[in-house]
């Protein structure tokens, strides 16, 4: 039991930033950690915006985008076919869909002037989500 708690703490420390996540040798695990990180950065962006710190909010949004991109790049680097080994790709698809919804919610919270910070991130996440769907559901090559 103590070993399990220690392992969980170590994983949480690893996921503190993208640099730590990039050191994860297992690409599928790296993808998962990057998506968890991106999801937590949506919270950070929302919290910073509510406090009036638009610079911190924009920085967190940049981390969301970088995390989702790292996740996708990691999955692609596995060399696995998304149609045959769909679980990690489907998990990433579900996570990106959730992040898209959360970004929409954040955009609704923001003033019209500040929404420009969210829109490029939304486009990136939507593009990656669409690529994941195409990979899973696309035609055989």
Explain how this protein is built:
By secondary structure, the protein is mainly α. The chain has one domain. It is built from six helices and no strands. α3 (27-50) packs antiparallel against α4, α4 packs antiparallel against α5 and α4 runs parallel beside α6 (119-137). The chain is globular, with a radius of gyration of 16 Å.
How many β-strand stretches? 0
Helix/sheet category: mainly alpha
Strand content: under 5%
Report the order of strands and helices.
Answer: HHHHHH
Alpha carbon gyration radius: 16 Å
Largest sheet: none
Low-confidence stretches: 3-7
What's the overall average pLDDT, rounded?
Answer: 90
Q: Between the first and last Cα atoms, what is the distance in angstroms? A: 46 Å
Helix content: over 70%
Morphology call: globular
Number of helices: 6
The number of domains is 1
Describe the protein's topology:
Layout: H1 2-14, H2 18-22, H3 27-50, H4 54-77, H5 86-109, H6 119-137
Helix pairs in contact: 3-4, 3-5, 4-5, 4-6, 5-6
Labels describing this entry:
6 helices, about 140 residues, single chain, globular, mainly alpha
